[in-house]
Amino acid sequence: MKKKKKLGIVDVLVWIVIVITFIWVVTPFYWAVITSFKKPIDVFRLSVVPWLQFKPTLDNWYMEFTQRGPEIMKGITNSIVISVSAALLAIALGSLAGYGLARFRFRKWKNQDMALWFLSQRFLPPAATVIPFFLIIKSLGLLDTRLALVLVNTTFTMPFAVLIMRDMFKELPVELEEAALVDGCSRWTAFLRVALPLAAPALVSTAIICFAFTWNEFLFALVLTYRQAIPMTIVIAGTEHTQGVQFWYVSTRLLLAILPPAILALMVQKYIVRGLTMGAVKG
Amino acid sequence: MKERGSFFVVPGIVWVLLFTIFPLVYSFRVSLSRVAYGRITGFAGLANYARMFQDYRFWGVLGFTLIFVIFSVAITVSLGLLLALVFNRKMRGLRFFRALMTTPLFTAPVALGYLGVMMFYEENGPINILLQTLGFSKVPWLSDIFWARTAVIMVDVWQWTPFAFIILLAGLQSLPDEVYEAAVLDTSSGWDIFRYITFPMISPVLGTVIMLRLVDAFKVFDIPFALTNGGPGTATRTLTFYVYTQGLRNFDLGYASAMAYFLMFMSLAVGIFFFRRYRSLYE
């Protein structure tokens, strides 16, 4: 027998929680957006509704792309180049290792131990490697290059890619690859032509997660770059110091730094739980 | 399978060896050395490690790091669990809500820090205006030790509560319905169902969330760097922050490396403690 549905106290409470959570999540973003459309004089008033409480202006955005355009473009370009390269390298290495761990059984060094080897990276604080990295990059003459940040971020994101791709390949039916092998394909062709295309959605999602993590990375960017190779995270850090409380400028830059990974992340919902727990929890 | 799969896993393993283990070994050597002007000038034995225990700043930094870790993890995990329990039902728009909740996770923490500067601004910042409208007095968010620490923790809670929420929700939704139906038939109260059925079944996922949150909280750097710049004084400096200032601003590399090692061992200890219990999730 089905219970009759009624709008009880529980439902009302749930709705209250939904509304509060919604406001809690959205307010900071909303504040940044409206501040970026405010004239300086409106910034320090509690004016929330555009047109009604303040007159929105495009001045800040116009300034951002004209007068301060070159600096911003440099930051965005660097961020894109670094994040895309690191993500591609990470999924290349990650899908190889993930495939190896999923399809072969290793004897000398067991599969679990290798998985643990990659997983242990998750527990390593970046502070532990930042000083040796700085010294090594400096002695290689790679300070303030994008390459340095690509190497660092590949190192941080690859373990994610390995463990997620391992799970994905494990879930693919082996039979298709076996059929390909029987037909005379090499293992390598079976991997490239059969397994990889089947895992493509997971591969794209993993790449997006790696891209977002690299885009948001700050400590190593702060240490390894200072002029030519600075990504967006460093650009916004510089803005605050020189512009003080000119929030109308700060907010435009914050939005430019925040939006790309946040929007991309909306596309990877299916794999997000795995990604965040490195495969421990399937969602 | 008989073929050799090392071809697939070797690149990833070598990469980790090259970019993590090698720097760690190098930094261990630095931590045992006397360093002047960025150059190793002699062997120092354990002097750098001994120095930590006499450095009152180190104790202060360690103290705040622990406060931060305890409060941030406790609040994010309990709020996340609460939300996950509330939303663990069939309802329309859950996917949209969940997607919205992932955006904070993919927002650069350093950007959030500066967004926090806007939100917590003492003179006519939105939070203070709101408090005043509600009849409270202005709060010196960023200039008072207690409130600055609170603000740093609040921003972190804002960012990471969704993490706990999303993973715990995935854990709850993977529990089989039958158990609940049986429990409802036994007319257990809601609290009993939670305590004797839901909680034991969710505890591996909860343990994993706590573990990952602990490990991440020990690494915190971006938010205090951007929001308070470690101030007022050194009240919101974290261990990573202190490693950064000592090592890469003051170039006291030996001492900074020793502290980095200390941080790493704390983080690894936490990781190993939890990992031994929840290892099966990763296999």
Automatic annotation (TrEMBL), chain A:
Its main location: membrane. The keyword Transcription does not apply. Residues 76-268 form the ABC transmembrane type-1 domain. It is a multi-pass membrane protein. The chain crosses the membrane at residues 12-33, 80-102, 123-141, 147-169, 190-215, 247-268. InterPro entries: BP-dep_ABC_trans_perm, MetI-like, MetI-like_sf. It is found in: Cell membrane. Keywords: Cell membrane, Membrane, Transmembrane, Transmembrane helix, Transport. It comes from the Bacteria. Gene3D superfamilies: MetI-like (1.10.3720.10). Belongs to the binding-protein-dependent transport system permease family. This is Carbohydrate ABC transporter permease. It comes from Thermatribacter velox.
From TrEMBL, chain B:
The keyword Iron-sulfur does not apply. InterPro entries: MetI-like, MetI-like_sf. Keywords: Cell membrane, Membrane, Transmembrane, Transmembrane helix, Transport. The keyword Signal does not apply. It is found in: Cell membrane. Its main location: membrane. Pfam families: BPD_transp_1 (PF00528). Gene3D superfamilies: MetI-like. It is a multi-pass membrane protein. Signal peptide: none annotated. SUPFAM superfamilies: MetI-like (SSF161098). The chain crosses the membrane at residues 7-28, 58-87, 99-121, 146-172, 193-215, 253-275. Residues 62-274 form the ABC transmembrane type-1 domain. Belongs to the binding-protein-dependent transport system permease family. PANTHER family: BLR7065 PROTEIN, SPERMIDINE_PUTRESCINE TRANSPORT SYSTEM PERMEASE PROTEIN. This is Sugar ABC transporter permease.
